[in-house]
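Because discrete structure vocabularies remain unfamiliar, it helps to consider an illustrative case, giving the amino acid sequence and backbone structure tokens:
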Amino acid sequence: MRVAYFPFTQEAADQVRKAGFSLESLLDKSSFASVRNRAADRVLGSLRGEIPDNRPRREAENFVELFSYPLSRLIVSCLNDDYLIRRYVLAEAKLAYKRMQSEKEEIIFLANDLGLHPLHSAETFRVHFSEYIKAAHHMRSPKWKLINRDLKDGYLTITAEELMRLMQELVRDRIIKGLPVPLEDELCKSLNEYIIPLRLELDKLRSKQNLNLIRVEEEAYPPCIKALMAQIFAGQNPAHSARFALTSFLLKINMSPDQVVTLFNNSPDFDEEQTRYQVKHISGSSGTMYKPPSCGAMMTYGNCVGKDNLCKMISHPLGYYQRKIKLGN
């Protein structure tokens, strides 16, 4: 296996340990500047949606790729931002998935490292249901549900593409483990050359995201929707009923499903595939577009934050919004 392509593996960790370089030398010596630059590049790429796939060809490039991964975890930990951590973990997992597709001869070895032990049969693989459940538990699309898979003698049949998707999920689980790493302030200060520009990029991304999501009609939102938006932007985790109310409301006022998915990026338990599936389902992908709950239902589920004067005259959040728009906010 090309260890530097998959630096989250046990073999990669063993190679890093055997090399015996001190953390101080990685952080300070000019000979390791390329490692620090690539580590920062990994984090910056995650903020922008994709880590550049700098595939190492020479021994020196293998070294840079291998050691930049643990150093990027330190940089992410110094920034200590939940939103960044989620984006970083997802981007590393996507990079691994991309590399799996061109390294298929290594797929069994890599799967074993991640805790999967697939049996290869012609063009398909067989995976034990217990390992399948562990890998697929975050995946909410119906095709991944155990009831929709063929199960025989405790094994499921999956394609090579499906195996790699399961492995991507296991990569995410492995990479997020231990993040953020507890670090001394002095260590983070030694990385300020890289951390400060990344923090500025993170702040810029947050500002842009908020501007894209807060529509010009924001002042027309009823108090309950404003409160839920504030919770999301604060990185809080609203109840399922509150998420449904917010999603269905925003879709009804013509916010796109992609915009709604991006909004939930701030949630601490954000899972992009699950969120996208749920948002599209509410938007009508299954044939029925769900309506936002009425004021009465919002009160029943504890999602009403108190009525203002206009609330007392209407019975539905959409009615509030439409009245506000008509009155010019």
